[in-house]
């Protein structure tokens, strides 16, 4: 066993958690160090047990704070008061609760009767439940700890109970702080008054449980580490002039205060993550990301592209004659932005956002035509074969009277067909190729690839995109997504792309009627009547379920069983099909083809139909257990209908057990069809990681920042980052900062191009 080193061994942010075992920290040996290191790896992306360090521990921030600074006496208590009392045990013990559980799972209550030092009021009660196989041992242990005469501090919300006394119910007795008596399982170690002082008489941090470590033990470890780290070991990362402009405290002060707020601090600011300490750490986190993304974008702008594209009035006129309808103002604005990119010396790297049905594809086609007018080949890559077939069909129809050759390239084609297409692409005989990931396979070579359009960007990995770019002469890249990302976030999430938004729907579309129904007999009868009426009128219906197999825990319906029920019992005269995630690719494609062709009238499905198949004849979307879906997901599902001229409906069936938040979410769906408004609301409720899927959207993990809550700080950080990027040539400090930003590991996540 390694002998502990003296308490004057210095600790820095880079000290490994495993090495803390020899730094003389109270009750912190090799076993505790290993457990803490392991627990920290769960909340420290990219770290393992051997390299997780003190900096990672100090980035594990309190979830809330308690003000234990003021002691009150019993006579000052009132119902609902949250306060600390300095008490002495008068009586303590445990007793069973009758008729609550079986004999094997006996439930007990441990109760302490206590008075304050000056006996200013009647005895108060502190109690908690004890259960499990070791319940008797736990009761005996607590009885030894809380013998009459033991002095302790109790903090919490005091309530006036039915027995006519003030009581405090605890979830865990850990937070009772013994001032005199034994506080370990052997009953041999006296309470350390210094340790006790960490938990009482001050503002204290409350942490989420980390592995086996509860808030009390974490508080002790963090407190001792902070006491042992000198300020000089907490290196400053932001320049003094920036800190002054933004009124940010030093990094060392921020780290100390975020864990243990000063006595004069407004705890409300801490609870809202608006304390100076919070602002400093949030700013630091988003500033380095913003700087890195700006640098990355600047490098791209300085790259020289292989393709040079000229767009004169004659070319514009030829493109206009091909278009099947007049563009909306929003579409025209975006086309101008794309043309500006195409004419520039730097390769285009643009994200085109537009709600479901806003006309992104026609804008992408205009960009493709501009490239083809200049003799370049173009590629359109989509996530599924059905989508590829759909795009190919539509684009071939639009370009039928032009000299351009449009071909489809997908994995399920015969080998001979694929080989012929590969040869034609390599010779430059194909102008536009539409396909899935088959487009980026090694044997696919383009003669003169000038533009790549990628539909539903979040379904493709960074590597796939890079591979497709490598096929040509550093081509233009246009990414399309129907997943609405609020304007406030787009520049952060896709900081290395230019962002265009189509925020206007084409005229003549009938808005989809959305209605929430309860999961009961009356409402279901109404829904059944709607479905029968629409199918008899020759239209088609989606019925979507959240899972494939039943889950007792989530109380959800099984899509397969419901499919059989709808097919055999409810709609025996109609053609009902099933589509779910466990089916093989070919099976899924076949079911969708039958639905697209109208052979299937009612399609029962899991959320695999979320991305973009166009079935103009589908007029009803039924979503079962709608409260289980995110808003943005529901909006994407709703976008599968309403593509024809007929009135379409979105039916949200929600459980009677839904929460207030779920009711509020579904209410927004009834109110609006605006995907951006819905995305804003979804972000408010669920946060960015869950809405976008961190890996899918290229969104980096933040330890302190929240992209919705901290938008003001985010914008300030971006302005500061722009300032330093502009200063790079004249300021050695700015150059040094940019070098550091380029090495930020998070940018590997945020890279989308």
The gist of it:
The protein has 753 residues and is of the alpha/beta class. The model is unreliable at 1-6, 182-189, 458-463, 548-557, 691-699 and 748-753 (pLDDT under 50).
Structure, explained:
This protein is α/β, with parallel strands linked by helices and 753 residues long. The protein is built from 27 helices and 22 strands. The strands form four sheets. Strands 6-7-4-3-2-5-8 form a seven-stranded mixed sheet. Strands 12-13-11-14-15-10-16 form a seven-stranded parallel sheet, sandwiched between helices. A hairpin with a 5-residue loop joins strand 6 (159-160) and strand 7 (166-169). The longest helix has 27 residues, at 276-302. The chain is globular and about 95 Å long. Mean pLDDT is 82; it is low at 1-6, 182-189, 458-463, 548-557, 691-699 and 748-753.
Count of strand segments:
22
Strand order of the largest sheet: 6-7-4-3-2-5-8
Overall pLDDT metric: 82
Number of helices: 27
Regions with pLDDT < 50 over 5+ consecutive residues? 1-6, 182-189, 458-463, 548-557, 691-699, 748-753
User: What radius of gyration results from the CA coordinates?
Assistant: 32 Å
Overall 3D form: globular
Q: What percent of residues adopt helix (DSSP H or I)?
A: 25-40%
What structural class results from the helix and strand content?
alpha/beta
Main beta sheet: strand number and arrangement?
7 strands, mixed
Strand content: 15-25%
* Amino-to-carboxy terminus distance: 51 Å
């Amino acid at each position: 066993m390694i002998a502990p080193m003296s308490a004057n061994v210095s600790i820095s942010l880079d000290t490994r958690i495993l090495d803390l075992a020899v730094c003389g920290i109270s009750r912190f040996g090799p076993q505790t160090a290993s457990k803490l290191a392991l627990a920290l790896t769960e909340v420290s992306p990219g770290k393992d047990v051997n390299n997780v360090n003190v900096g990672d521990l100090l980035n594990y921030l309190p979830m809330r704070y308690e003000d234990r600074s003021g002691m009150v006496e019993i006579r000052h208590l009132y119902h609902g008061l949250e306060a600390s009392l300095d008490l002495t045990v008068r009586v303590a013990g445990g007793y069973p609760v009758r008729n609550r559980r079986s004999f094997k799972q006996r439930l007990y209550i441990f109760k302490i009767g206590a008075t304050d030092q000056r006996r200013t009021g009647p005895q108060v009660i502190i109690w908690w439940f004890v259960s499990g196989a070791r319940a008797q041992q736990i009761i005996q242990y607590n009885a030894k700890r809380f013998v009459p005469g033991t002095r302790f501090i109790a903090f919490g919300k005091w309530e006036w109970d039915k027995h006519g006394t003030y009581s405090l119910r605890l979830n865990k007795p850990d937070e009772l702080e013994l001032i005199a008596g034994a506080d370990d399982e052997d009953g041999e170690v006296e309470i350390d008054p210094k340790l006790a002082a960490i938990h009482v008489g001050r503002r204290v941090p409350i942490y989420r449980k980390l592995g086996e470590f509860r808030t009390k033990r974490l508080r002790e470890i963090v407190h001792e580490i902070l006491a042992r780290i000198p300020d000089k070991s907490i290196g400053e990362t932001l320049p003094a002039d920036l800190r002054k402009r933004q009124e940010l405290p030093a990094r060392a002060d921020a780290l100390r205060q975020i864990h243990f707020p000063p006595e004069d601090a407004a705890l409300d600011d801490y609870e809202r993550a608006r304390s100076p300490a919070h602002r400093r750490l949030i700013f630091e986190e988003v500033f380095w990301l913003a700087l890195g993304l700006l640098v990355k974008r600047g490098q791209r702008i300085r790259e020289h592209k292989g393709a040079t594209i000229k767009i004169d009035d004659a070319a514009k006129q030829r493109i206009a004659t091909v278009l099947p309808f007049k563009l909306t103002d929003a579409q025209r604005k975006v086309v101008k932005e794309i043309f500006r990119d195409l004419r520039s010396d730097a390769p285009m790297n643009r994200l085109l956002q537009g709600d479901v049905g806003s006309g992104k594809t026609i804008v992408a086609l205009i960009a493709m035509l501009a490239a083809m007018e200049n003799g370049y080949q173009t590629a359109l890559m989509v996530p599924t074969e059905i989508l590829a077939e759909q795009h190919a069909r539509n684009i071939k129809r639009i370009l039928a009277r032009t000299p351009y050759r449009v071909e489809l390239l997908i994995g399920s084609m015969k080998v001979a067909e694929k080989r012929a297409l590969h040869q034609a692409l390599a010779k430059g005989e194909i102008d536009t190729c539409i396909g899935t990931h088959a487009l980026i396979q090694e044997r696919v070579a383009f003669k003169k690839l000038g533009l790549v359009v990628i539909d539903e960007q979040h379904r493709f990995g960074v590597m796939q995109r890079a591979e497709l770019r490598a096929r040509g002469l550093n081509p233009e890249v246009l990414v399309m997504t129907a997943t609405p990302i609020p304007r406030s976030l787009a520049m952060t999430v896709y900081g290395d792309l230019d962002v265009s938004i189509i925020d206007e729907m084409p005229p003549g579309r009938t808005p989809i009627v959305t209605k929430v129904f309860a999961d009961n007999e009356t409402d279901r009868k109404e829904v059944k009547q709607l479905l029968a009426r629409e199918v008899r009128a020759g239209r088609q219906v989606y019925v979507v379920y959240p899972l494939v197999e039943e889950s007792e825990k989530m109380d959800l319906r099984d899509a397969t069983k419901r499919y059989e029920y709808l097919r055999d019992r409810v709609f025996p005269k109609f053609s009902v099909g099933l589509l779910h995630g466990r089916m093989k690719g070919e099976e899924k494609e076949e079911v969708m083809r039958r639905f697209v062709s109208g052979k299937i009238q009612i399609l029962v499905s899991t959320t695999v139909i979320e991305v973009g198949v166009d079935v103009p004849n589908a007029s009803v979307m039924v979503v079962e257990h709608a409260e289980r879906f995110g808003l943005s997901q529901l909006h994407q599902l709703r976008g599968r209908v309403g593509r024809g001229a007929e009135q379409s409906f979105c039916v949200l069936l929600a459980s009677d057990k839904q929460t207030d938040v779920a009711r509020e979410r579904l209410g927004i769906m009834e109110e609006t069809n605006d995907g951006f408004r819905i995305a804003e609301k979804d972000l408010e409720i669920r946060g960015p990681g869950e809405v976008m899927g961190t890996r899918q959207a290229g969104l980096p993990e933040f330890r302190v920042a929240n992209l919705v809550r901290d938008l003001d700080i985010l914008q300030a950080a971006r302005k500061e980052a722009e300032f330093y990027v502009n200063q790079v040539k004249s300021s050695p400090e700015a150059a040094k900062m940019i070098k550091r930003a380029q090495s930020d590991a998070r940018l590997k996540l945020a890279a989308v191009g």
